[in-house]
Design brief:
There is one protein chain. With 403 residues, the chain is α/β, with parallel strands linked by helices. The chain has two domains: 248 residues, Rossmann fold; 129 residues, CBS-domain (Roll). It contains 15 helices and 16 strands. It has a six-stranded mixed beta sheet, with helices on both faces. The chain has a four-stranded antiparallel beta sheet with strand order 2-1-4-5, with helices on one face. Helix 4 crosses helix 6. The protein is globular. It binds adenosine-5'-triphosphate.
Protein backbone atom coordinates (compact mmCIF):
# COMPACT_ATOMS: atom_id res chain seq x y z
CA UNK A 1 0.00 0.00 0.00
CA UNK A 2 1.02 3.53 -0.69
CA UNK A 3 2.48 5.19 2.41
CA UNK A 4 0.13 8.12 2.18
CA UNK A 5 0.98 10.97 4.48
CA UNK A 6 -1.80 11.54 6.95
CA UNK A 7 -2.31 14.91 8.54
CA UNK A 8 -1.27 14.58 12.14
CA UNK A 9 -4.18 15.30 14.43
CA UNK A 10 -1.98 15.29 17.51
CA UNK A 11 -0.53 18.74 17.21
CA UNK A 12 -2.77 21.23 18.91
CA UNK A 13 -3.80 23.42 16.06
CA UNK A 14 -3.61 27.08 16.58
CA UNK A 15 -0.48 26.81 18.71
CA UNK A 16 -0.01 30.53 18.53
CA UNK A 17 2.63 31.53 15.98
CA UNK A 18 0.42 33.55 13.66
CA UNK A 19 1.52 34.12 10.07
CA UNK A 20 -1.78 35.56 8.84
CA UNK A 21 -4.15 37.50 11.06
CA UNK A 22 -7.51 38.90 10.04
CA UNK A 23 -8.83 41.33 12.60
CA UNK A 24 -12.44 42.49 12.22
CA UNK A 25 -12.12 42.26 8.44
CA UNK A 26 -15.13 43.26 6.35
CA UNK A 27 -15.89 43.70 2.66
CA UNK A 28 -18.83 45.63 1.30
CA UNK A 29 -18.94 45.64 -2.51
CA UNK A 30 -19.91 48.77 -4.45
CA UNK A 31 -23.48 47.48 -4.90
CA UNK A 32 -23.89 47.25 -1.13
CA UNK A 33 -23.39 43.48 -0.80
CA UNK A 34 -21.85 42.67 2.56
CA UNK A 35 -19.74 39.70 1.45
CA UNK A 36 -17.82 39.57 4.75
CA UNK A 37 -19.03 41.48 7.80
CA UNK A 38 -16.41 41.20 10.51
CA UNK A 39 -14.09 38.24 10.42
CA UNK A 40 -11.38 37.40 12.94
CA UNK A 41 -9.13 34.55 11.85
CA UNK A 42 -5.56 33.64 12.64
CA UNK A 43 -3.48 31.15 10.64
CA UNK A 44 -0.29 29.83 12.19
CA UNK A 45 3.06 29.50 10.46
CA UNK A 46 3.25 26.22 8.52
CA UNK A 47 -0.43 25.52 9.05
CA UNK A 48 -2.86 24.47 6.33
CA UNK A 49 -6.25 26.03 6.90
CA UNK A 50 -9.30 25.27 4.75
CA UNK A 51 -12.09 27.82 4.38
CA UNK A 52 -15.33 25.96 3.72
CA UNK A 53 -18.95 27.00 3.50
CA UNK A 54 -21.83 27.24 1.09
CA UNK A 55 -21.67 29.15 -2.17
CA UNK A 56 -21.60 32.91 -1.67
CA UNK A 57 -20.56 32.84 2.00
CA UNK A 58 -17.46 34.93 1.31
CA UNK A 59 -14.63 32.40 1.03
CA UNK A 60 -13.06 33.79 -2.14
CA UNK A 61 -13.54 37.38 -1.01
CA UNK A 62 -11.71 36.54 2.21
CA UNK A 63 -8.84 34.85 0.37
CA UNK A 64 -8.43 37.67 -2.11
CA UNK A 65 -8.31 40.26 0.64
CA UNK A 66 -5.19 38.55 2.02
CA UNK A 67 -3.20 39.22 -1.17
CA UNK A 68 -5.05 42.47 -1.88
CA UNK A 69 -6.72 41.37 -5.08
CA UNK A 70 -9.69 42.78 -3.16
CA UNK A 71 -9.29 45.69 -0.77
CA UNK A 72 -11.02 45.21 2.60
CA UNK A 73 -13.63 47.81 3.56
CA UNK A 74 -12.80 47.48 7.24
CA UNK A 75 -10.47 45.74 9.65
CA UNK A 76 -6.83 44.82 9.36
CA UNK A 77 -4.91 41.98 7.73
CA UNK A 78 -1.45 41.21 9.05
CA UNK A 79 1.13 39.08 7.28
CA UNK A 80 3.80 37.97 9.73
CA UNK A 81 2.91 41.07 11.73
CA UNK A 82 2.96 43.50 8.77
CA UNK A 83 -0.20 45.26 7.65
CA UNK A 84 -0.69 44.03 4.04
CA UNK A 85 -1.98 47.44 2.94
CA UNK A 86 1.44 48.84 3.80
CA UNK A 87 3.48 46.22 1.92
CA UNK A 88 4.34 47.25 -1.65
CA UNK A 89 2.82 44.92 -4.31
CA UNK A 90 6.09 43.26 -5.40
CA UNK A 91 6.92 42.51 -1.81
CA UNK A 92 3.49 40.95 -1.35
CA UNK A 93 3.93 38.77 -4.46
CA UNK A 94 7.20 37.51 -3.10
CA UNK A 95 5.56 36.56 0.16
CA UNK A 96 2.26 35.14 -1.09
CA UNK A 97 1.82 32.52 -3.81
CA UNK A 98 -1.60 32.20 -5.40
CA UNK A 99 -3.12 29.12 -7.02
CA UNK A 100 -6.51 29.10 -8.67
CA UNK A 101 -8.77 26.58 -10.37
CA UNK A 102 -7.22 25.03 -13.52
CA UNK A 103 -3.90 26.63 -12.59
CA UNK A 104 -4.89 30.03 -14.06
CA UNK A 105 -2.00 29.82 -16.53
CA UNK A 106 -1.20 32.35 -19.25
CA UNK A 107 -2.31 30.47 -22.40
CA UNK A 108 0.21 32.16 -24.70
CA UNK A 109 3.22 31.40 -22.49
CA UNK A 110 5.13 28.12 -22.30
CA UNK A 111 5.12 26.15 -19.06
CA UNK A 112 8.63 27.40 -18.29
CA UNK A 113 7.65 31.03 -18.90
CA UNK A 114 4.53 30.62 -16.80
CA UNK A 115 6.54 29.34 -13.86
CA UNK A 116 9.21 32.05 -14.31
CA UNK A 117 6.66 34.87 -14.29
CA UNK A 118 7.03 36.07 -10.71
CA UNK A 119 10.83 35.67 -10.46
CA UNK A 120 11.19 37.76 -13.66
CA UNK A 121 8.77 40.36 -12.31
CA UNK A 122 10.91 40.49 -9.21
CA UNK A 123 13.95 41.22 -11.35
CA UNK A 124 15.77 37.88 -11.19
CA UNK A 125 18.11 37.30 -14.11
CA UNK A 126 16.83 34.89 -16.78
CA UNK A 127 19.18 32.01 -16.05
CA UNK A 128 18.40 32.04 -12.33
CA UNK A 129 14.64 32.20 -13.01
CA UNK A 130 14.94 29.36 -15.52
CA UNK A 131 16.97 27.14 -13.18
CA UNK A 132 14.48 27.73 -10.36
CA UNK A 133 11.53 26.96 -12.66
CA UNK A 134 13.02 23.70 -13.90
CA UNK A 135 13.67 22.66 -10.29
CA UNK A 136 10.05 23.46 -9.38
CA UNK A 137 8.64 21.45 -12.28
CA UNK A 138 10.54 18.45 -10.92
CA UNK A 139 9.23 19.18 -7.44
CA UNK A 140 5.59 19.05 -8.60
CA UNK A 141 6.20 15.83 -10.53
CA UNK A 142 6.54 17.14 -14.09
CA UNK A 143 9.54 16.11 -16.19
CA UNK A 144 11.01 19.43 -17.42
CA UNK A 145 12.45 17.74 -20.52
CA UNK A 146 8.92 16.78 -21.57
CA UNK A 147 6.82 19.66 -20.26
CA UNK A 148 8.87 22.86 -19.99
CA UNK A 149 8.34 23.93 -23.60
CA UNK A 150 4.71 22.95 -23.86
CA UNK A 151 1.82 25.41 -23.78
CA UNK A 152 -1.07 25.07 -21.32
CA UNK A 153 -3.46 23.69 -23.96
CA UNK A 154 -1.01 20.81 -24.50
CA UNK A 155 -1.34 19.68 -20.87
CA UNK A 156 -3.93 17.62 -19.03
CA UNK A 157 -6.03 19.30 -16.33
CA UNK A 158 -3.91 17.70 -13.60
CA UNK A 159 -0.68 18.84 -15.26
CA UNK A 160 -1.99 22.39 -15.59
CA UNK A 161 -2.80 22.34 -11.90
CA UNK A 162 0.73 21.17 -11.05
CA UNK A 163 2.19 23.98 -13.15
CA UNK A 164 -0.08 26.40 -11.27
CA UNK A 165 1.38 25.16 -7.98
CA UNK A 166 4.95 25.40 -9.34
CA UNK A 167 4.28 28.96 -10.50
CA UNK A 168 2.92 29.95 -7.09
CA UNK A 169 6.02 28.52 -5.41
CA UNK A 170 8.50 30.17 -7.77
CA UNK A 171 9.61 32.99 -5.48
CA UNK A 172 9.56 30.60 -2.49
CA UNK A 173 6.84 32.54 -0.66
CA UNK A 174 6.11 31.52 2.93
CA UNK A 175 2.37 31.74 2.23
CA UNK A 176 0.23 30.00 -0.39
CA UNK A 177 -3.36 30.95 -1.11
CA UNK A 178 -5.31 28.32 -3.04
CA UNK A 179 -8.81 28.91 -4.41
CA UNK A 180 -10.58 25.64 -5.29
CA UNK A 181 -7.27 24.35 -6.68
CA UNK A 182 -8.41 20.79 -7.29
CA UNK A 183 -11.99 21.27 -8.38
CA UNK A 184 -11.55 21.42 -12.17
CA UNK A 185 -10.26 17.85 -12.50
CA UNK A 186 -12.02 14.51 -12.31
CA UNK A 187 -12.25 12.74 -8.93
CA UNK A 188 -9.39 10.31 -9.61
CA UNK A 189 -6.97 13.04 -10.66
CA UNK A 190 -8.19 15.19 -7.76
CA UNK A 191 -7.41 12.39 -5.37
CA UNK A 192 -3.89 12.08 -6.76
CA UNK A 193 -3.28 15.83 -6.73
CA UNK A 194 -4.44 16.08 -3.13
CA UNK A 195 -2.02 13.33 -2.07
CA UNK A 196 0.80 14.91 -4.03
CA UNK A 197 0.07 18.22 -2.41
CA UNK A 198 0.10 16.68 1.07
CA UNK A 199 3.50 15.14 0.35
CA UNK A 200 4.77 18.43 -1.04
CA UNK A 201 3.51 20.30 2.01
CA UNK A 202 5.38 17.88 4.30
CA UNK A 203 8.50 18.99 2.47
CA UNK A 204 7.90 22.72 2.06
CA UNK A 205 5.86 23.61 5.20
CA UNK A 206 4.15 26.63 3.74
CA UNK A 207 1.40 28.50 5.49
CA UNK A 208 -1.57 27.60 3.29
CA UNK A 209 -5.09 28.96 3.10
CA UNK A 210 -7.24 26.79 0.87
CA UNK A 211 -10.76 27.63 -0.26
CA UNK A 212 -12.92 24.63 -1.03
CA UNK A 213 -16.60 23.77 -1.12
CA UNK A 214 -15.67 20.13 -0.58
CA UNK A 215 -15.70 19.15 3.09
CA UNK A 216 -13.97 15.83 2.32
CA UNK A 217 -11.09 17.72 0.73
CA UNK A 218 -10.89 19.99 3.77
CA UNK A 219 -10.90 17.03 6.16
CA UNK A 220 -8.19 15.34 4.17
CA UNK A 221 -5.84 18.26 3.76
CA UNK A 222 -6.35 20.75 6.54
CA UNK A 223 -4.83 21.15 9.99
CA UNK A 224 -7.79 23.38 10.81
CA UNK A 225 -11.08 24.01 9.08
CA UNK A 226 -12.85 27.37 9.22
CA UNK A 227 -16.55 26.87 8.51
CA UNK A 228 -18.16 30.08 7.24
CA UNK A 229 -21.83 30.96 6.78
CA UNK A 230 -23.31 33.90 4.86
CA UNK A 231 -21.52 37.19 5.33
CA UNK A 232 -18.28 35.43 6.25
CA UNK A 233 -19.55 34.51 9.71
CA UNK A 234 -17.12 32.11 11.37
CA UNK A 235 -19.25 29.23 12.66
CA UNK A 236 -16.38 27.00 13.78
CA UNK A 237 -12.61 26.94 13.54
CA UNK A 238 -11.14 23.64 14.66
CA UNK A 239 -9.19 20.52 13.69
CA UNK A 240 -11.08 18.31 11.21
CA UNK A 241 -11.77 15.60 13.81
CA UNK A 242 -13.40 18.18 16.09
CA UNK A 243 -15.46 19.77 13.33
CA UNK A 244 -16.75 16.30 12.42
CA UNK A 245 -17.07 15.00 15.96
CA UNK A 246 -18.29 18.08 17.76
CA UNK A 247 -19.91 20.53 15.34
CA UNK A 248 -20.22 23.84 17.17
CA UNK A 249 -23.57 24.84 15.65
CA UNK A 250 -26.51 23.28 13.81
CA UNK A 251 -25.24 25.05 10.72
CA UNK A 252 -21.90 23.20 10.94
CA UNK A 253 -23.60 19.86 11.66
CA UNK A 254 -25.77 20.18 8.59
CA UNK A 255 -22.91 21.47 6.44
CA UNK A 256 -20.57 18.56 7.28
CA UNK A 257 -23.40 16.12 6.62
CA UNK A 258 -25.18 13.24 8.31
CA UNK A 259 -22.37 10.87 7.31
CA UNK A 260 -19.82 12.70 9.44
CA UNK A 261 -19.30 9.49 11.49
CA UNK A 262 -18.03 7.80 8.34
CA UNK A 263 -16.03 10.86 7.32
CA UNK A 264 -14.41 10.72 10.71
CA UNK A 265 -12.81 7.41 9.76
CA UNK A 266 -10.55 9.33 7.45
CA UNK A 267 -9.17 11.29 10.40
CA UNK A 268 -9.15 8.44 12.92
CA UNK A 269 -5.75 6.86 13.32
CA UNK A 270 -4.96 3.27 14.20
CA UNK A 271 -4.48 2.89 17.95
CA UNK A 272 -2.34 0.33 19.75
CA UNK A 273 -5.49 -1.17 21.24
CA UNK A 274 -6.86 -1.83 17.75
CA UNK A 275 -4.11 -4.30 16.97
CA UNK A 276 -4.14 -8.06 17.31
CA UNK A 277 -1.03 -10.15 17.78
CA UNK A 278 -1.27 -13.46 15.96
CA UNK A 279 1.57 -15.96 16.53
CA UNK A 280 4.90 -14.94 15.06
CA UNK A 281 7.39 -17.30 13.42
CA UNK A 282 10.74 -16.46 11.87
CA UNK A 283 11.91 -17.04 8.34
CA UNK A 284 14.81 -19.14 9.57
CA UNK A 285 12.59 -21.41 11.72
CA UNK A 286 12.10 -24.98 10.60
CA UNK A 287 8.61 -25.94 9.44
CA UNK A 288 8.39 -28.35 12.38
CA UNK A 289 9.01 -25.51 14.83
CA UNK A 290 6.43 -23.33 13.06
CA UNK A 291 3.87 -26.13 13.19
CA UNK A 292 4.51 -26.58 16.90
CA UNK A 293 3.97 -22.84 17.47
CA UNK A 294 0.72 -22.84 15.51
CA UNK A 295 -0.67 -25.96 17.16
CA UNK A 296 0.45 -24.73 20.57
CA UNK A 297 -1.49 -21.50 20.12
CA UNK A 298 -4.43 -23.14 18.32
CA UNK A 299 -3.93 -20.74 15.40
CA UNK A 300 -4.45 -21.38 11.68
CA UNK A 301 -1.74 -18.98 10.55
CA UNK A 302 1.19 -16.97 11.79
CA UNK A 303 3.00 -13.83 10.78
CA UNK A 304 6.46 -14.51 9.37
CA UNK A 305 9.28 -12.06 10.18
CA UNK A 306 12.98 -12.01 9.49
CA UNK A 307 15.50 -11.72 12.32
CA UNK A 308 15.26 -7.91 12.24
CA UNK A 309 11.50 -7.92 12.74
CA UNK A 310 10.78 -7.03 9.11
CA UNK A 311 7.62 -8.56 7.73
CA UNK A 312 8.26 -11.41 5.30
CA UNK A 313 4.67 -12.61 4.92
CA UNK A 314 2.44 -15.19 6.50
CA UNK A 315 2.39 -18.93 6.82
CA UNK A 316 -0.61 -21.27 7.31
CA UNK A 317 -0.78 -24.57 9.14
CA UNK A 318 -1.14 -26.32 5.79
CA UNK A 319 2.18 -24.86 4.58
CA UNK A 320 4.02 -26.48 7.47
CA UNK A 321 2.99 -30.04 6.63
CA UNK A 322 5.77 -32.54 6.15
CA UNK A 323 8.48 -30.48 4.43
CA UNK A 324 12.07 -29.99 5.45
CA UNK A 325 12.28 -26.38 4.26
CA UNK A 326 12.46 -23.31 6.45
CA UNK A 327 9.47 -21.06 6.98
CA UNK A 328 11.06 -18.39 4.78
CA UNK A 329 10.83 -20.69 1.75
CA UNK A 330 7.11 -21.35 2.04
CA UNK A 331 5.73 -18.10 3.45
CA UNK A 332 3.22 -16.11 1.37
CA UNK A 333 3.65 -12.51 0.40
CA UNK A 334 1.63 -10.08 2.47
CA UNK A 335 -0.55 -8.11 0.08
CA UNK A 336 -2.59 -6.09 2.57
CA UNK A 337 -0.69 -3.72 4.81
CA UNK A 338 -0.84 -0.14 6.00
CA UNK A 339 1.69 2.13 7.67
CA UNK A 340 1.13 2.73 11.38
CA UNK A 341 0.18 6.34 10.57
CA UNK A 342 -2.64 5.25 8.27
CA UNK A 343 -6.26 5.98 9.06
CA UNK A 344 -9.02 3.49 9.70
CA UNK A 345 -10.44 4.41 6.31
CA UNK A 346 -7.20 3.43 4.60
CA UNK A 347 -7.12 0.16 6.54
CA UNK A 348 -10.69 -0.63 5.42
CA UNK A 349 -9.80 0.23 1.84
CA UNK A 350 -6.75 -2.01 1.96
CA UNK A 351 -8.77 -4.89 3.32
CA UNK A 352 -11.42 -4.50 0.62
CA UNK A 353 -8.94 -4.01 -2.20
CA UNK A 354 -7.13 -7.26 -1.41
CA UNK A 355 -10.19 -9.09 -0.18
CA UNK A 356 -8.06 -9.84 2.86
CA UNK A 357 -9.16 -11.13 6.27
CA UNK A 358 -6.50 -9.04 7.97
CA UNK A 359 -4.18 -6.13 7.35
CA UNK A 360 -0.62 -5.93 8.66
CA UNK A 361 0.44 -2.68 10.31
CA UNK A 362 4.02 -1.55 9.74
CA UNK A 363 6.07 1.16 11.35
CA UNK A 364 8.61 1.73 8.59
CA UNK A 365 9.81 -1.81 7.90
CA UNK A 366 8.97 -3.02 11.34
CA UNK A 367 5.87 -5.14 11.89
CA UNK A 368 3.70 -3.98 14.82
CA UNK A 369 0.51 -6.04 14.60
CA UNK A 370 -2.53 -6.80 12.50
CA UNK A 371 -6.00 -5.39 12.07
CA UNK A 372 -8.85 -7.83 11.54
CA UNK A 373 -12.52 -7.18 10.71
CA UNK A 374 -13.26 -7.62 14.43
CA UNK A 375 -10.69 -5.06 15.57
CA UNK A 376 -11.66 -2.67 12.78
CA UNK A 377 -15.25 -2.94 13.92
CA UNK A 378 -14.20 -2.10 17.47
CA UNK A 379 -12.19 0.85 16.21
CA UNK A 380 -15.20 2.02 14.23
CA UNK A 381 -17.32 1.82 17.35
CA UNK A 382 -14.72 3.78 19.28
CA UNK A 383 -14.79 6.44 16.61
CA UNK A 384 -18.59 6.62 16.62
CA UNK A 385 -18.75 6.67 20.45
CA UNK A 386 -16.23 9.48 20.53
CA UNK A 387 -18.35 11.20 17.91
CA UNK A 388 -21.50 10.90 20.04
CA UNK A 389 -19.67 12.32 23.03
CA UNK A 390 -18.11 15.03 20.95
CA UNK A 391 -14.68 13.82 21.99
CA UNK A 392 -11.73 14.79 19.84
CA UNK A 393 -9.55 11.87 18.86
CA UNK A 394 -6.40 12.54 20.85
CA UNK A 395 -6.78 9.31 22.80
CA UNK A 396 -6.91 7.27 19.62
CA UNK A 397 -3.69 8.53 18.20
CA UNK A 398 -1.57 6.44 15.91
CA UNK A 399 1.44 7.48 17.96
CA UNK A 400 0.16 5.00 20.53
CA UNK A 401 1.26 2.08 18.40
CA UNK A 402 3.77 0.23 20.60
CA UNK A 403 7.42 0.29 19.76
N1 LIG B 1 -17.60 42.13 -7.33
C1 LIG B 1 -18.68 41.87 -6.60
N2 LIG B 1 -19.67 42.76 -6.49
C2 LIG B 1 -20.76 42.52 -5.73
N3 LIG B 1 -20.92 41.39 -5.03
C3 LIG B 1 -19.98 40.45 -5.12
C4 LIG B 1 -18.81 40.63 -5.89
N4 LIG B 1 -18.03 39.52 -5.79
C5 LIG B 1 -18.70 38.68 -4.96
N5 LIG B 1 -19.87 39.25 -4.57
C6 LIG B 1 -20.86 38.67 -3.64
O1 LIG B 1 -20.24 38.50 -2.38
C7 LIG B 1 -20.69 37.32 -1.76
C8 LIG B 1 -19.49 36.46 -1.45
O2 LIG B 1 -18.87 36.02 -2.66
P1 LIG B 1 -17.61 35.06 -2.68
O3 LIG B 1 -17.22 34.87 -4.09
O4 LIG B 1 -16.61 35.57 -1.74
O5 LIG B 1 -18.25 33.74 -2.09
P2 LIG B 1 -17.71 32.23 -2.07
O6 LIG B 1 -18.01 31.72 -0.71
O7 LIG B 1 -16.31 32.19 -2.53
O8 LIG B 1 -18.68 31.56 -3.12
P3 LIG B 1 -18.45 30.31 -4.13
O9 LIG B 1 -18.27 29.09 -3.28
O10 LIG B 1 -19.74 30.27 -4.89
O11 LIG B 1 -17.27 30.65 -4.97
C9 LIG B 1 -21.68 36.69 -2.72
O12 LIG B 1 -22.96 37.07 -2.33
C10 LIG B 1 -21.32 37.30 -4.05
O13 LIG B 1 -22.44 37.36 -4.89
Amino acid sequence: MDATPVRSQTATPGGGDPMIQLVGVGKRYADGTDAVRSLDLSVDRGELVALVGPSGCGKTTTLKMVNRLIEPSSGRILLDGDDVTKVEPNGLRRRIGYVIQSGGLFPHKSVLDNVSTVPLLLGWDRSKARARSLELLELVGLDPAVHAKRYPHQLSGGQRQRVGVARALAADPPVLLMDEPFSAVDPIVRDRLQLEFLRLQEEIHKTVVLVTHDIDEAVRLADRIAVLSQGGKLEQYDAPATVLGAPATDFVASFVGADRGLKRLSVTGIAATDLESPPVVYASDSLAAAEETLRGEGAAWAVCLDERGTLKGWVGLRDTAGGVATVGEVCHRMEAWVPARATLKQAFQEMLQHDAGWVAVLDGDRYVGVLTPRTLHEALRRSVDADALGVPLEHTEVDNVPS
